[in-house]
Design goal:
This protein is of the alpha+beta class. It has one domain (7-74). Helix content is 43%, strand content 23%. The protein contains 3 helices and 3 strands. It has helices at 13-21, 48-56, 64-80; strands at 7-10, 26-33, 36-42. A 3-stranded antiparallel sheet has the order 1-3-2, covered by helices on one side. Helix 1 (13-21) packs across helix 3 (64-80). It is globular. The two termini are 22 Å apart. The relative contact order is 0.21.
Length: 82
């Protein structure tokens, strides 16, 4: 899901964690829909879509413990409101 030319957004927690693990901090979290949040990232270089493609093609390598920690961190931001 893309919001504008310089941003990438997703409501998929696993994909958001991959993006964060590859050095892209969460720019904002859209909570306008009470049933789901949307993670928004700056993507001025248009490279996040390559990560997402790698995720779906199952070719990315991640540090398992770091990835799990990132998921926990993102969940705490969603449910903690930070």
């Amino acid at each position: 899901m893309i919001t504008n030319e310089d941003e990438y957004s997703t409501n998929d927690l696993a994909i958001a964690a991959v993006i964060v693990d590859h050095g892209y901090p969460v720019k904002d979290i859209d909570r306008s829909n009470p049933k789901r949040v949307i993670f928004i990232f700056s993507d001025e270089n248009k490279t996040i879509s390559l990560l997402v493609d790698g995720y779906w093609q199952n070719i990315l390598l991640v540090n398992p413990r770091g990835y799990f920690d990132t998921i926990k961190h993102l969940k705490s931001r969603v449910y903690g409101g930070a």
